[in-house]
Write a structure and sequence with these properties.
Distance between the termini: 50 Å
Order of helices and strands: HHHHHHHHHHHHH
Number of domains: 2
Number of strands: 0
Mean pLDDT: 82
Shape: globular
Radius of gyration: 20 Å
Strand content: under 5%
């Protein structure tokens, strides 16, 4: 068996199960929302946005416009722009694989590529490509499996869309506990509450996200100082 592929498989093992869990949840939600298996497959191939796909289902069922969904996806996943900067030169040397590597650089792929130690007898470019491709295929499979699984479940799944809310509440609580500076979370909360009461539940998301990003950019020095002080202590 290809030693580059074997090594890549070893690197992705810790990430496969979270991919399967979230992807299956997305597929079930898509089926519950009335979308066919084909749409789950297309979403897994071309959107490939992890938890944002779960949020997308809730936005679609709530009647949100495609513009709103696109803008929210951009804000949520804008961090990938900064991830990609570190790998531009590496990916450019991969020829026709360059565009694919760029659009499939997820949080998990980034963390693996940053931490992997390559043996001298392996081809780094091939290993990186296999890592990215394997995880993408796992995600596509999990999205389709979830959609098929949703069709086979004999009982009503009404309310399962709350899993997206529960997921993000868990992520928020985890970040609150791990981060030394709580300014980003507090900023997001205040912005969301203000625009929720001003614009209502259907129009507050984009303005709240925009103001939050602007406020965090203006406060980046203060946040950095808070984190530095915490590390020094």
């Amino acid at each position: 068996m290809n030693k580059n592929l074997v090594f890549a498989l070893q690197q992705v093992v810790p990430v496969i199960f979270p991919y399967l869990f979230i992807g299956i949840a997305f597929g079930v939600l898509m089926d519950e929302a009335g979308y066919s298996v084909g749409w789950s497959f297309i979403s897994g191939v071309f959107i490939y946005a992890g938890s944002m796909q779960i949020v997308m289902v809730s936005l679609l069922t709530a009647g949100a416009s495609l513009g709103t969904i696109a803008m929210m996806t951009f804000f949520v996943n804008a961090r990938h722009i900064f991830y990609g900067i570190a790998f531009i030169d590496t990916f450019r040397k991969m020829g026709w694989k360059y565009p694919y590597m760029v659009v499939t650089l997820t949080d998990e792929v980034y963390s693996i590529l940053c931490a992997v130690n390559y043996p001298n007898d392996l081809e780094i470019k091939k290993v990186d490509f296999y890592i990215t491709l394997i995880l993408h295929l796992v995600w596509i499979f999990s999205c389709v499996a979830g959609a098929l699984f949703g069709q086979l479940i004999p009982f009503d799944l009404a309310g399962i869309e709350f899993s997206a809310t529960a997921f993000f509440v868990t992520v928020c609580m985890n970040q609150w506990q791990q981060m030394d500076s709580h300014l980003p979370a507090i900023t997001g909360l205040i912005s969301a509450l203000v625009f929720y009461f001003i614009l209502g539940p259907n129009q507050f998301i984009l303005p709240a996200l925009s103001v939050s990003v602007l406020a965090l950019v203006l406060m980046k020095t203060k946040i950095h100082q808070t984190l530095t002080m915490a590390i020094d202590q």
